[in-house]
Design goal:
52% of the residues lie in helices and 12% in strands. The chain is of the alpha+beta class. Bound molecules: protoporphyrin IX containing FE.
């Protein structure tokens, strides 16, 4: 059907025609079509992450609409600013108490682990006024990995597993991990409800107003897990093997462009070099690798081939955002300057937060946090890749076991 759109002959297993799509315009057209929905047979696995009920992320129609409307105020400018201030304070504490001592001792650190801890503490503090302990965070991450692996990789391998699941040790481990996650979510919600002066924060308010407790904790889990996306994004940006920190020249250039004495949150888009760096890193390393949709109408490919209504469309952001016909031959190279004057096609193809009505509800928060945290780290430290680790894909793409060394840089 053309190199970036093809059909996989798996109708028997999928129950409908399956198309894999790497074409930017077609991807955007499908995602923004009002009648197109999330294929529940693929997304429903997300709902088992904490033995839970349906979440915003894995629903459609009026249920989805009501949840989205309830959660949207949490990402208004006022609340994004408030949550971001907490992210900045946590980042500064991390730089002072962890990164500086590590830099002095010449020791390396696990980039993924540190960034996820930073984001987890930020979401629990900003939404629930609760500071998670390092032990709680470690247990949560381990449990989340267990339930994600089980639900997203194993259950989809075959329904027969469900029938004999009580015999399987990984099913038992999943059950225990899911129960612990559930308990943590209930605990955060209960603590918030007992606060004498809660911030009337819309995220926690909308969660606590939900009648159904399993639904409430599943939504909370979605928010906490989604914050991990920002963390992975930080990893890719500041720490990837081909990111700005991969060479002293690239990170030095970026550092020089950041005003050293003004580490207050710059209005997003003010620091062009930071903005371009973030865009380029998100283009090369989209943490959410694919979106899937059940098409609501017929679509026609560039080559004139039909994708009929009711098909399963799996769209790869990796392919779309590295398309050589849009990003030229050096599409795989890290070149932030390409965003100085982006073409219309580049802007259309750039969709790390998805597109359409079911795009990322937290993108404003994620973007503001990235624009604030990256300059804080880069302006004070040079990061050297000790071990690039390897890309890992469970829910999101992250650089697993990537070890970095930080070197304090002198202020001019
Ligand atoms: C750099 C960080 C992030 C990236 C790259 C990202 C990316 C995405 C993408 C691509 C989607 C669409 C998925 C699909 O079409 O299947 C999505 C959906 C979503 N994201 Fe994010 N996300 C990030 C951060 C966040 C944050 C911080 C939150 C909330 C605290 C969040 C909450 C959500 C939710 C709830 C949805 C489902 C929205 C709906 O279906 O209406 N995300 N995200």
């Amino acid at each position: 059907m053309g190199t970036t759109v093809f059909r996989l002959p798996l109708d028997v297993f999928v129950g409908t025609k399956l198309f894999v799509i790497g074409d930017a315009k077609l991807t955007r057209a499908i995602l923004t079509d009002k009648g197109t929905t999330k294929p529940m047979n693929m997304y429903e696995n997300f709902n088992n992450m904490a033995n839970g009920a349906i979440s915003l992320f894995a629903s459609n129609g009026s249920y989805w609409h009501a949840r989205r409307k309830a959660i949207a105020p949490a990402f208004s400018s006022q609340h994004v600013q408030r949550m971001n201030a907490i992210a900045i304070a946590n980042c500064d504490e991390w730089l002072e108490t962890k990164l500086k001592p590590l830099a002095k001792e010449g020791k390396s650190f696990d980039a993924e682990r540190e960034m996820i801890d930073l984001m987890l503490s930020t979401i629990s503090e900003s939404a629930f006024q609760y500071k998670m302990s390092p032990t709680e965070m470690d247990a949560f991450k381990e449990d989340l990995a267990t339930v994600a692996n089980y639900n997203l990789l194993k259950t989809s391998l075959g329904r027969w597993r469900m029938a004999i699941s009580w015999l399987l040790t990984d099913r038992q481990a999943y059950g225990k991990a899911a129960t612990r996650i559930q308990a943590l979510c209930y605990k955060l919600i209960a603590i918030y409800k007992q606060l004498e002066n809660p911030t009337k924060e819309p995220l926690s308010n909308s969660l606590c107003a939900t009648r159904h407790t399993t639904m409430m904790q599943n939504e909370l889990l979605t928010q906490m897990d989604s914050h991990g996306h920002t963390a992975c994004c930080c990893d890719h940006i500041g720490m990837g093997t081909d990111g700005p920190c991969s060479t002293p020249t690239a990170s030095g250039r970026l550092r020089r462009s950041i005003q050293q004495d003004d580490l207050q949150p710059p209005p997003p888009h003010q620091l062009e070099s930071v903005h371009q760096t973030i865009r380029e890193s998100m283009r090369l390393h989209p943490v959410v690798a694919v979106s899937a949709r059940s098409t609501g109408k017929d679509f026609i490919t560039k080559q004139g081939k039909l994708i009929p209504a009711g098909s399963l469309a799996v769209m790869s952001y990796f392919v779309v955002m590295r398309d050589q016909s849009i990003f030229a031959e050096e599409a795989d190279e890290f070149k932030p300057a390409r965003w100085e004057n982006p073409t219309k096609d580049m802007t259309c193809a750039f969709m790390p937060f998805g597109a359409g009505q079911q795009n990322c509800v937290g993108q404003k928060l994620a973007s503001v946090e990235l624009h604030c945290i990256l300059p804080r780290i880069i302006s004070q430290f040079e990061l050297i890749v000790d071990d690039p680790g390897r890309p890992k894909y469970v829910l999101v793409v992250s650089p697993a076991n990537c070890l970095l060394k930080a070197k304090l840089v002198a202020h001019p």
